[in-house]
């Protein structure tokens, strides 16, 4: 039978085998048009550290949700996380993600946006498999939060407005905390436990983002995966950058470097040296240590209430995020 001119027959190659592998893991795929999911599949071919999946498993030691529901929730978070990365890389004009060229440099901006949008709705479709009637409302709530956070970060960059630390913290709670919270709120909705784990999740989300900001400017491993000091080239007001600018309000050098969105190696090295001269990396490390200590205290309180030993997996995640325990080069990036 000849291929239809309306429904072309696509070549079955390496990408198709990737989709089959993903499907075996329980991830939804689009059977009719493999090109629809190609950017998403490409990103999944270079998996990150999957810390969100690890956190879901760790919190489930307390919540005891049935495995089939956990798998569904992890699938939802995986789809949303990878979709958000596709969009982030376009908005930030990124060059590398996980050590390979970004998806839109391979498939084009339009197709990558469409693939990301499709993933949002594939994730939404998965909500039908959950028993909590509030799952859709939770999903909508946290996706709105995620876009609020992303919108504020983009606004600061485009208007060259340096936010306060308080404004930055609110942005992080929305942007980074959104998916962390979504996973745990969906878990809580499937659990018999009435204990609220969101405060600890919020601490972990903030810890993760500030650590990520630090790594972007200080980690050799991070540079290999995303490029040297990518946040400087993006003009991003990250945590150490905000502290550095506000440490010397009358000095416009760093602000002007961000304005240039420079890819020049020497300019970026100068920016890192300037940030270091204001004590901002030291300040950042102190904040990370403080958040890690607070998260450990929150976890200890939960273990005291729920029973010792349930927090072993969460403690392992905290060790991974702890700069002193893991070393500053440890990479937990997306």
Give a quick rundown of the structure.
With 334 residues, this protein is mainly alpha-helical. It has a domain at 195-323: Farnesyl Diphosphate Synthase (Orthogonal Bundle), CATH 1.10.600.10.
What order do the strands of the largest sheet run in, or round the barrel if closed?
A: 1-2
Query: In terms of structural class, how would the helical and strand content be classed?
Result: mainly alpha
**What is the helix tally?**
17
Main beta sheet strand tally, sense and closure: 2 strands, antiparallel
The stretches of 5 or more residues where confidence is low (pLDDT under 50) are 1-27
How far the N terminus sits from the C terminus, by CA atoms, comes to 44 Å
| Strand fraction | under 5%
Taken from the alpha-carbon principal axes, the silhouette is globular
Number of strands: 2
Q: What's the CATH H-level homologous superfamily of the domain at 195-323?
A: Farnesyl Diphosphate Synthase
Rg (CA only):
21 Å
In percent, how helical is the residue content?
A: over 70%
Query: What CATH architecture label of the domain at 195-323 applies?
Result: Orthogonal Bundle
Can you identify the CATH class of the domain at 195-323? Mainly Alpha
Order of helices and strands: HHHHEEHHHHHHHHHHHHH
- The fold-level CATH name of the domain at 195-323 is Farnesyl Diphosphate Synthase
Mean pLDDT: 88
Binding site for isopentenyl diphosphate: 49, 52, 81, 98
Binding site for Mg(2+) 2: 88, 92
Site (Important for determining product chain length): 120
Enzyme class: transferase
């Amino acid at each position: 039978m000849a291929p239809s001119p309306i429904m072309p027959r696509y070549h079955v190659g390496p990408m198709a085998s990737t989709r089959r592998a993903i499907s075996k893991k329980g991830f939804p795929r689009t059977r009719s048009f493999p090109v629809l999911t190609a950017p998403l599949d490409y990103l999944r071919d270079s998996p990150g550290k999957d810390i969100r999946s690890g956190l879901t498993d760790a919190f489930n030691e307390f919540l005891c949700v049935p495995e089939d529901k956990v798998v569904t929730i992890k699938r939802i978070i995986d789809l949303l996380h990878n979709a958000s990365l596709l969009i982030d890389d376009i908005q930030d004009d990124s060059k590398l993600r996980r050590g390979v060229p970004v998806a839109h440099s391979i498939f084009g901006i339009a197709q990558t946006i469409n693939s990301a949008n499709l993933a949002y709705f594939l994730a939404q479709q998965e909500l039908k498999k959950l028993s909590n009637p509030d799952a859709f409302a939770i999903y909508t709530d946290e996706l709105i939060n995620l876009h609020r956070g992303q919108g504020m970060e983009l606004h600061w960059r485009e208007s060259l407005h340096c936010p306060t630390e308080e404004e930055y913290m609110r942005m992080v709670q929305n942007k980074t905390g959104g998916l962390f919270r979504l996973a745990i709120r969906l878990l809580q909705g499937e659990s018999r436990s009435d204990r609220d784990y969101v405060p600890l999740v919020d601490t972990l989300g903030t810890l993760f983002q500030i650590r990520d900001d630090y790594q972007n400017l200080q980690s050799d491993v991070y540079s290999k995966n995303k490029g040297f000091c990518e946040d400087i080239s993006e003009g991003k007001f990250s945590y150490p950058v905000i502290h550095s600018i506000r440490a010397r309000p009358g000095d416009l050098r760093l602000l002007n470097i961000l304005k240039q969105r420079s890819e020049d190696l020497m300019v970026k090295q100068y920016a890192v040296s300037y940030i270091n001269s204001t004590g901002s990396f030291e300040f950042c490390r102190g904040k990370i240590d403080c958040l890690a200590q607070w998260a450990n205290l929150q976890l200890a309180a939960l273990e005291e209430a729920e029973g010792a030993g349930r927090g072993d997996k969460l403690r392992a995640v905290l060790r991974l995020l702890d700069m002193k325990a893991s070393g500053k080069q440890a990479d937990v990036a997306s």
